[in-house]
Write a structure and sequence with these properties.
The structure is a single chain. By secondary structure, the protein is mostly helical. It has one domain. Helix content is 75%, strand content 2%. The chain has 13 helices and two strands, in the order αβαααααααααααβα. It has helices at residues 2-14, 29-51, 57-70, 76-93, 95-126, 133-140, 151-170, 174-194, 206-216, 218-227, 229-250, 254-272, 280-286, and strands spanning 16-18, 275-277. Strands 1-2 form a two-stranded antiparallel ribbon. Helix 5 (95-126) runs antiparallel to helix 7 and helix 7 runs antiparallel to helix 8 (174-194). The protein starts with a helix and ends with a helix.
């Protein structure tokens, strides 16, 4: 498995280019698609890992360490860029964009998800599986599963609902609306956890909020990072190492993990402010993600 991961790293390194110290296109569609393409490969590898049997410990153990360290952070940038992109669209298009969220975002994603599930349901029935009505309904909305991955879609759908609610209530007061999403996300975390879902159902949901917040304060963030680039990068790396060590080796709470995820986001954004990945392969791979 480490060989496959090595190929992805090789593609990323060969496409790496140094940019100007104050480059501004690191949040462009092409650039973010390239970053998402890299993490999409890592998501694919992660799913392979859960289904396949590996018998070469010297080749598989290094990837297991990578997988253990990155954990749920492999989806963090998808949620961050989604929050950023939606906030940018709301800033440009205002209430007209918000009104279309239930159809253009929520319903579109749900229909695509259910369309894919329809084929999987058919396959499972043909292979002898039987499902009750309740199981089918809960699976179609992402709460339950018949073997498919569902937590990410369920999380994204609720984030769209939160966005529609808060921006409908607070209108053009973007700061209050984004803070409302933060509060609703915390509530989501508490409820989903109380209902017995695993930690990965909720431990990266705040990345969407961070993306929206970055959209609101991007200018100030860029000024601060550019003025203190190496000090900021060093700070992020040191604290990221500390938080992940606490989480994985001392079983600290999810709060520590949130700090690790924040450091991960900060590192990726800071890195892309100085280096771009020019890769058609990753760009096309990341362009269709939710």
């Amino acid at each position: 498995m480490i060989l496959l991961f090595g190929v992805v790293l090789l593609f990323a390194i060969t496409g790496l280019k140094k940019t100007n110290d104050n480059q501004t296109d690191y949040m462009s569609v092409n650039m973010t698609n390239s970053i998402k393409g890299i993490f999409l490969c890592m998501v694919f590898f992660s799913h392979i890992w859960t289904y396949a049997d590996f018998v070469h410990p010297y080749l598989d153990a290094p990837y297991q360490l990578v997988r253990r360290v990155t954990g749920q952070c492999i989806v963090a940038m998808f949620l961050f860029y989604s929050g950023y992109g939606i906030m940018e669209s709301i800033k440009k298009k205002g209430k007209n964009y918000v009104r279309k969220i239930p159809v253009h975002r929520f319903l579109k994603v749900l229909l695509l998800f259910d369309s894919a599930l329809a084929f999987y349901f058919g396959y499972r029935y043909l292979t002898g599986s039987q499902f009750g009505v309740k199981k089918i309904i809960l699976t179609l909305v992402g709460w339950d599963s018949i073997g498919n991955s569902n937590w990410y879609i369920f999380c994204v759908l609720w984030l769209y609902i939160f966005t529609f609610i808060t921006f409908t209530v607070f209108g053009l007061n973007h700061r209050k609306a984004v803070f409302g999403i933060f509060v609703l996300s915390l509530l989501y975390m508490a409820i989903v956890c109380a209902l017995g879902k695993e930690y990965w159902w909720y431990d990266t949901i705040l990345c969407y909020f961070w993306g929206m917040l970055f959209s609101l304060y991007r200018g100030k963030a860029e000024h601060f990072i550019n003025e203190n680039f190496w000090s900021w990068l060093f700070f992020v790396l040191v604290f990221a190492t500390g938080f992940i060590s606490l989480h994985f080796y001392k079983n600290f709470s999810w709060v520590v993990y949130q700090l690790w995820v924040f450091c991960f986001l900060a590192f990726v954004i800071t890195f892309t402010m100085r280096y771009m990945i020019d890769s058609r392969f990753f760009e096309r791979g990341g362009g269709k993600s939710v």
